[in-house]
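Dear colleague,

Thank you for sharing your sequence with our group. We've completed the structure prediction you requested, and as agreed, I am returning the results in plain text so they can be pasted directly into your records. Please verify that the sequence below matches your submission; if there's any discrepancy, let me know and we will rerun it promptly.
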Amino acid sequence: MKSIATKKVAGGKMITVKVDHDNVINNIEILGDFFLHPEDSLELIENSFLGRHVKEDRLEAINRIDQIVAHNGLELIGITSKTIVDTVKEAVE
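Please find the predicted structure tokens below.
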């Protein structure tokens, strides 16, 4: 099943998540007008969702994204790990 969700976050930034899933996330694309530094690190966050159950605990997913951000010295600008996870959850529901 393919689904999509879009959210407008505080400050006017947009995030769109496109997900191909059944019981698990098979493919995911995160798009929007937010910033991530370094720019080519978005794939790390996207890959962290692959193979995860669509009903994964929200806090576990947020913590996983926070760990990726901290471990790799990433900077999310205009969105948070919570925003990402909430948009993914909305897409798969």
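Summary note from our side: The chain has one domain: 2-92.

Kind regards,
the structure core
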